[in-house]
Amino acid sequence: MSDNNKDLQKIVVDDTVYLTKLTPKFAVRKAFAPKDPKKICAVIPGVILDVTVNKGQHVKRDQSMLVLEAMKMRNSIKAPFDGIIKSIQISKGERVAKGELLIEFE
Predict the structure, then answer these.
(1) R_g of the chain computed on alpha carbons
(2) Are 99 and 77 in contact, with CB atoms under 8 Å apart?
(3) How many other CB atoms sit within 10 Å of the CB of residue 96?
(4) Cα(106)–Cα(93) distance, rounded to whole angstroms?
(5) Is 40 within 8 Å of 80 (Cβ atoms)?
(6) Positive or negative CA dihedral for 78, 83, 89, 92?
């Protein structure tokens, strides 16, 4: 690249190379990291109404593990797969923030 193009970055889309200038916000963005399927986190802030599983318990896929009330709606959080509960980070009546760890599988 020449000195005139030193701020430009190459991006390849469908085998076509494009030169573009990245915004400062893009340059400091948080890198994507896939979610750990063994960690169940709150997708919305709310209050835990009920916890129906215990540490060490075997659960089946789609079994209800807890009830989270958010925006006046009750959401049953179900097991995404068969497994064993490693830890429960919340308790009944507790307020949780978006992204907060609720339950972890072994």
Answers:
(1) 21
(2) no
(3) 20
(4) 25
(5) yes
(6) positive
**The model's pTM:** 0.69
Tracing tokens 């835990």 back to the chain, one arrives at 48
Amino acid residing at 78:
K
pLDDT at 1: 44
Token duo for residue 91:
């308790």
The token pair at 76 is 């049953």
Task: Report the amino acid identity of residue 48.
Answer: I
Tokens of 40: 């169940």
Give the other-Cβ count within 10 Å of 65's Cβ: 20
Look up residue 27 and give its DSSP letter.
H
Return the closest-CA partner of residue 49 out of 39, 64, 37: 64
- Quote the CA–CA distance of 70 and 46 in Å, as a whole number: 4
pLDDT in tens, 58-73: 999 999 999 999 999 9
